[in-house]
Specification:
Blueprint: H1 13-25, H2 33-64, E1 76-82, E2 87-88, E3 92-102, E4 112-118, E5 138-146, H3 159-165, E6 171-174, E7 181-184, H4 190-208, H5 215-223, H6 231-240, H7 250-268, H8 272-277, H9 280-298, H10 303-321, H11 327-341, H12 349-365, H13 374-388, H14 390-397, E8 399-401, H15 404-428, H16 433-453, E9 459-461, H17 467-480
Parallel strand pairs: 4-6
Antiparallel strand pairs: 1-3, 1-5, 2-3, 3-4, 5-6, 5-7, 8-9
Helix pairs in contact: 1-2, 4-5, 5-15, 6-16, 7-9, 7-10, 7-15, 9-10, 10-11, 11-12, 12-13, 15-16
């Protein structure tokens, strides 16, 4: 996070040197209090320096893959592969493209770019036509590119950071009236197989629910394609605070993983031969992690799904090895794994909200003495998460849904435990009944959400609070949610 606040990449040499000094201090085992305190300070400083240096090195590697300024706005002939699901709009098709070869002499193009291919507008004598693209196809195209740029709006959406986080290092469009040739219908690599499967699932759902109003929601829950949801439905989800449910988020991946864990554990322990070969707990852990990984791949392995898989992998390893000593330690190890693999995760609001929500749930449940009815515990968790996320939501989005506790209380179990599993089962079956059932359940949930979104003052909006106010608010909420017996 500290590296991302810098205007330019700093020289990380001093950080590596500081890390070396700190790591050398780990070999010293002082007995006196002052020296022990100094050693601890050096070790913590070394950890900070290592993290800073690692993030700086990763950023240097990514920034090195850039489009030279001299080649902006010029025709460049390239050969590459359609690497993601093409997104059609009223003007054409937008898609991600992996560059394999640059045909124009002396031109240099980043390996991963995003392109728009404009269609032919409708006329009196013919309808509009759009290019037909499928993931995994190899094309020869002539393109014009520009380096990533975004409008600098305080507390607004940072398009440039969004592209950088996803390693999209240039954006452009396919030149009209130039040579465009499909060289191969399928490039056989695992990542392209997955994208082609996602495209087939999207087509399957569109065919089964062609005119259904919430077909886009079913597509989003099955393959993570959020752009299939119309803007007016997004407004409803935002006003009711359930927009996090309309993508394959950490919650859905965890729910599916949990369902598979319960199913495998319940069946495995009833078969003695299987239990003697491998304990039921370990078998269930492997199956749950495999289900989470498969579901995340089906979602295109988007950043939120990646974070969840890494977290679940840490938990699965701790369960397999039997080394769970503290829930907070497991959460911290998962956090470390996420930022090591993806240093840009700190740019995403979902990173802070997902880890923050899990931390709050642990804070109000783990280690508390006494028993409560499950309904009381569930209500306590709902209230705690709602209150604790107010400061970051106001800081990042300048709004909080007042009706979100009620909306989430209904939508989370309905969407995560009913609609999403039915959508996944439906795409695997040759008939449409299960997908139609998923849409029917979603229609009932949407009726409630639309009613809640129309309530007066459903959303609290205000200017972004200053950083000190967010820090004070988080500390105050930690005090408020502490166990009974804390002073004041």
């Amino acid at each position: 996070w500290w590296l991302q606040q810098q205007a330019v990449l700093p020289d990380a040499g001093w950080a590596w040197a500081l890390a070396a000094v700190g790591l050398a201090a780990t070999a010293v085992r002082p007995e006196r209090g002052a020296l022990r305190l100094l050693r601890g300070l050096l070790v913590k400083t070394a950890c900070f320096a290592l993290g800073f240096s690692w993030a700086a090195w990763c950023a240097q590697q990514r920034l090195a893959d850039a489009l030279p300024a001299d080649w902006e706005g010029r025709d460049i002939a390239v050969i590459g592969v359609v690497s993601g699901l093409p997104q059609a709009n009223e003007r054409g098709v937008r898609f991600e493209f992996d560059i394999e070869r640059v045909l124009t002499p002396d031109a240099r193009v980043p390996q991963h770019i995003v392109l728009s291919w404009w269609g032919t507008p409708a006329r009196e004598d013919r309808p509009a036509t759009f290019p037909s693209l499928e993931p995994g196809e190899r094309w020869q195209l002539t393109v014009r590119l520009k380096r990533p740029r975004g409008t600098a709006i305080p507390h607004g959406f940072d398009y440039e950071a969004w592209l950088f986080e996803r390693n999209l290092r240039a954006a452009g469009y396919v030149r009209p009236r130039t040579a465009r040739e499909r060289l191969a219908t399928m490039v056989h690599e695992p990542r392209y197989w997955i994208e082609r499967a996602r495209g087939a699932i999207r087509s399957r759902i569109q065919a089964a629910l062609s005119d259904a109003p919430y077909a886009g929601v079913i597509i989003a829950l099955a393959i993570g394609d959020q752009r299939a949801i119309p803007p007016e439905q997004w407004r409803t989800f935002t006003r009711t605070g359930v927009n996090h449910l309309m993508s394959i988020s950490g919650l859905h991946v965890t729910m599916v993983s949990g369902l598979v864990f319960a199913l495998v554990y319940g069946l495995w322990r009833r078969i003695p031969r299987l239990t003697l070969a491998l304990p039921a707990l370990k078998a269930a852990v492997v199956a749950a992690l495999g289900a989470a990984l498969l579901y995340a791949l089906l979602a295109g392995f988007a950043v939120p799904a990646q974070r969840t898989v890494y977290m679940l992998a840490v938990v699965a390893a701790a369960l397999w090895l039997g080394v769970i000593e503290s829930a907070s330690v497991v959460l911290c190890v998962a956090l470390l794994v996420v930022v090591l693999i993806d240093p840009w995760a700190v740019l995403a609001p979902g990173f802070w909200l997902s880890f923050g929500a899990v931390a709050v749930i642990m804070y109000v449940t783990v280690g508390r003495i006494g028993r409560s009815h499950w309904l009381t515990s569930w209500a306590r968790v709902q209230i705690a998460v709602t209150l604790a996320l107010i400061p970051p939501l106001l800081a990042m989005f300048q709004q909080v849904s007042i009706v979100s506790p009620l909306a989430n209380a209904v939508a989370i179990p309905v969407v995560s435990l009913v609609v999403a599993p039915l959508a996944l089962i439906g795409v695997a079956l040759p008939f449409d009944l299960v997908l139609q059932c998923a849409h029917l359940v979603m229609s009932g949930c949407m009726a409630l959400l639309e009613w809640l979104s129309l309530l007066p003052d459903a959303v609290w909006q205000q200017h972004a609070p200053p950083a000190w106010a967010v820090i004070v608010a988080v500390a105050a909420l930690a005090w408020l949610l502490a166990p009974r017996g804390m002073p004041a």
